[in-house]
């Protein structure tokens, strides 16, 4: 599904963020990127939807180099959830999702609202559809953000520390949601500092250190 082939990235100041990363994420698989701060995890994640452009090697999505795909099409196939929850502050939960559907085209206002409601239901937020982000907890906001990233039915979901802004008691809800999405076959790459979270949602753990992928192992084998 996603293949990293000798992926390298050097910043303008000459520092290398990624060095010869090779790896493959199969369809329906959840891979957690683990490793120390500054190791290159977010950079690697962002090469998939081209928020970061690689300067060596390539990233292949379903057989096609991502640079050969039109950016809007690529971003529709690859959903992205940021660490800092970035909902539109002046829009209710349901409108946050409906706006993305409307922008994508093809749906009437009523249809996009209906589909948005369906997604809020899937993430357990149906009863808060009319709430503004400020009236929601961090975990609830993150669930709306995940609904927003999922509503165009992307083949792949990228998540950059989806739980780092959350209180520990809210992490479980997001973990359960991601497990549900995984069970439905969504391919995911998730950057996380939390080993327990990684083991809880991922099939495989990739250890990133100094811009290199130094280990790739089944999550169930990871030490508790
Ligand atoms: N746009 C940029 N320009 C220059 N350097 C950058 C840029 N983005 C990231 N870096 C640097 O690249 C390195 C890798 O950063 P990255 O964010 O990928 O690490 P990370 O493993 O995700 O870290 P963390 O766990 O702290 O989020 C870091 O040294 C960082 O300072």
From TrEMBL:
Highest taxon of source: Bacteria
Keyword Nucleotide-binding carried by entry: yes
Signal peptide segment: none
GO CC entries: plasma membrane
InterPro entries noted in UniProt: AAA+_ATPase, ABC_transporter-like_ATP-bd, ABC_transporter-like_CS, MetN_ABC_transporter-like, P-loop_NTPase
Annotated ABC transporter domain residues: 2-224
Presence of the UniProt keyword Transcription in the record: no
Family the entry assigns: Belongs to the ABC transporter superfamily.
The protein's name: Amino acid ABC transporter ATP-binding protein
Keywords annotated in UniProt: ATP-binding, Cell membrane, Membrane, Nucleotide-binding, Transport
A molecular function (GO) term: ATP hydrolysis activity
Cellular localisation: Cell membrane
Membrane-protein topology: Peripheral membrane protein
